Amino acid sequence: DAKTTQPPSMDCAEGRAANLPCNHSTISGNEYVYWYRQIHSQGPQYIIHGLKNNETNEMASLIITEDRKSSTLILPHATLRDTAVYYCIVRVANSGGSNYKLTFGKGTLLTVNP
Amino acid sequence: EADIYQTPRYLVIGTGKKITLECSQTMGHDKMYWYQQDPGMELHLIHYSYGVNSTEKGDLSSESTVSRIRTEHFPLTLESARPSHTSQYLCASSGTGNSPLHFGNGTRLTVT
To answer: Do B23 and B91 touch, CB atoms closer than 8 A?
Structure first.
């Protein structure tokens, strides 16, 4: 899997948009970008994923640059409950072997302040 | 929404005991995974399975073993627990193609 780089920590005011960046400059053409988050002591929670188009769901939006070398996860109106570690992961899909597994890095600790 | 269950949620056990951590999923997912995570640290993959009777070692070496006799069940066993096994163990499953992984809430193991 391609390596990703994320800032170790970020702060955001409650009610404001949280924009979490991720660099994946060595991403291959068939690798998807996945975002997960982990709230203290719980299992990671899937947020969103995409290949090259921007994606939006009820939790967040994912903006992928045209060259696909970086992406941004956007939480439009952050709440205190969004405080968590956010992981950006790239993974090949639709192929066999060991490529279905996810390799987690250190992620970004997002702290939402009142 | 995938349903994946891990038991027990917390386990405190003495050195030398044999333990089995349970993981079950109700979505019919072929692929299942075990991750290990120490407090404040990264998740490390220790075992995975692509289906019944298929198990593979993950990226991090572990003294634990796993079995996959049924699609929905992926238990992890430690034959002789040691204090170095103290950690959180997270189970996950995924479906076909680019389906995301869905995680359980983990088992927090303490070996005294």
So the answer is: yes
Which residues have CB under 8 Å from A109's CB, separation 6+?
A: A8, A9, A10, A84, A85, A86
Tokens representing residue A71 in the block: 């992406």
pLDDT of residue B52: 95
Inter-chain touch B45–A102, beta carbons under 8 Å: yes
Predicted confidence at residue A56, as pLDDT, reads 97
Best mutation target, A30, A40, A41, A46, to test chain B (most B CBs within 10 A): A46
With H, G, I as helix, E, B as strand and everything else as coil, classify residue A82: helix
Give how far Cα B14 sits from Cα of B62, B83, B110, Å.
Answer: 19, 8, 8
A112 sits in which H/E element: strand A108-113
Q: Which of A6, A47, A31 is nearest to A99 (CA)?
A: A31
Q: What pLDDT, in 10s, does the model give residues A61-111?
A: 999 999 999 999 999 999 999 999 999 998 865 555 555 678 888 999 999
Q: Check if A29 contacts B (Cβ < 8 Å).
A: no
Residues whose CB is less than 8 angstroms from the CB of residue A66 and which lie 6 or more positions away in sequence, other chains included: none
pLDDT in tens, B43-65: 999 999 999 999 999 888 889 99
Structure confidence at residue A28 as a pLDDT band (50, 70, 90) = confident
Residue type, A14: E
Mean pLDDT of all residues in chain A? 90
Side by side, which strands form the sheet with A108-113? A9-13, A108-113, A84-92, A31-38, A45-50
